[in-house]
């Protein structure tokens, strides 16, 4: 979303299963090179995703680090083309109820953390 005049606040809301679950993420005011994402989970039916967007006109190189109650783990690194986005599934690298993530980039990027819970049908 790009405002041509005035101030705008954006959010992304998702609802499912007849509004029995919801997810919301408030938009940020500016891209940044350092992002700190708390309280993800990748165990017990939870899935955590880190979404990284490069709104700039140059490639952005970023690295991720996962922090758990047991250890700090180096996550993946990516080069992100201008005007593109990538989604990283944290569960592919970490399986724990407590995982925080840092994203460090050489260019300003926009980052979001999304957590979903899979609930068996009929629960």
Low-confidence blocks of residues:
none
What global shape is seen?
A: flat
Oligomer: single chain
| Sheet having the most strands | 6 strands, antiparallel
Helix proportion range: under 10%
How many strand units?
8
- The Cα radius of gyration reads 16 Å
Report mean pLDDT, rounded to a whole number: 87
Number of helices: 0
Strand percent estimate: over 45%
N-to-C terminal Cα separation, in Å?
A: 37 Å
SSE order: EEEEEEEE
Structural class: mainly beta
Task: Supply the key terms.
flat, 6-stranded antiparallel β-sheet, two-stranded antiparallel sheet, 0% helix
What would you say this structure looks like, in words?
This protein has 123 residues and is mainly β. 0% of the residues lie in helices and 59% in strands. The chain contains no helices and 8 strands. Strands 3, 4, 5, 6, 7 and 8 form a 6-stranded antiparallel beta sheet that branches. A hairpin with a 3-residue loop joins strand 5 and strand 6 (72-80). The model has no long low-confidence stretch (mean pLDDT 87).
């Amino acid at each position: 979303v790009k405002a041509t005049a005035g101030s705008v606040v954006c959010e992304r809301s998702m609802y499912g299963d007849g509004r029995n679950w919801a997810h919301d993420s408030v938009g940020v005011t500016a891209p940044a090179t350092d992002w700190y994402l708390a309280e993800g989970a990748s165990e017990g039916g939870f899935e955590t995703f880190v979404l990284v967007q490069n709104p700039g006109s140059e490639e952005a190189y970023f690295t991720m680090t996962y922090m758990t109650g047991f250890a700090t783990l180096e996550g993946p690194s990516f080069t992100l083309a201008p005007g593109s986005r990538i989604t990283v599934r944290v569960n592919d690298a970490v399986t724990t109820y407590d995982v925080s993530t840092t994203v460090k980039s050489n260019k300003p990027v926009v980052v979001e953390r999304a957590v979903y819970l899979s609930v068996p049908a009929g629960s």
